[in-house]
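Morning. Coffee machine broken again, so started the prediction first thing and wrote up yesterday's gels while waiting. Chain of 315 residues, entered below exactly as on the submission form.
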Amino acid sequence: MTFINEYTMYCAICGGPIKDPDVDRGWLSQIVLLHSTAEFPDTQIRELPARNNGGPYFELLESAEAITACDKSGSIVPSPRPLYIPCHTICISLAKRCMAAHGGASHRSIDEATRHLWSVFEALFEKASEEKFGPICNIYSAQAYGDIWRFQELVWQPGHDPKARFDSMHFEADPEDVLDMKKSILSQLRTLPAAKFRSSSPEPFQLPPISNLSLECTLQILPTVWREALARSYLPWLWDLDPDSIAQKEAAKPPEQEWNWELLVRQLAQVDLHEPRAILEDLPMGLRNRRRIWRIVEDMLSVEAADYYLSQWQK
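Came back before lunch.
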């Protein structure tokens, strides 16, 4: 359980706290500093592994150079220095997966998307630093991170409140190495009589975009189509739900029954999957956190930083 103070630094992607590796060697303490030099603003955004030495103070692992992250005094004329934005290493990994899913997997596409994310972070930093001189621990309003504002409140203490406990477990759960993910997802499958699907079209069918999926099943497409889509990363944040696990589950269906793969895919596609009262309540906290972070990155990639993100500070 993490307890925060006014010096806690937060990841620019997920909004979660950055931990001291001497206290916790989990994913929240594995850090990369993003930066772009003022001299060459259009070059590739660099990723520098670092360790947190408390608050906004970091040390680069390769050079042992001391760095102050999100420091306004070091990013303005007359002595421009690189702006460093801290992110969890795993959040950077998730962001790149999201970029590849949306814009292609080429290095050029990912580099362009990374520069877009950087422009978002830079704009948010400039807005946040208008009201504070010195290091900025949180560049974005906490409401934007999926209810993480509860986690960032200095007065917040976990206690025994179930809602607060869910928040803490939710935001601290490792979003990449999710324990029992496959089992928990496939256990959500429900059956329908095989006769229900006899009128389904056997012809190739273009599945709708995942952003348009409601919870209403049409049964117009064969279950095998939905099953194969799930096995082939139709939902790209489930990259580790492998075809073998899905095939084993299919082989275990009851006689005269079919797994309702359509319903499962529709449930998993809901954008609020990460919330406490989501349609699937028994998913691992790490998977919920993964979906939350993925959604944040999608939002950042879909709009111009100057238009949407800066407007969030007005709410």
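The two ends are 29 Å apart (CA to CA). Going to sketch it on the whiteboard this afternoon.
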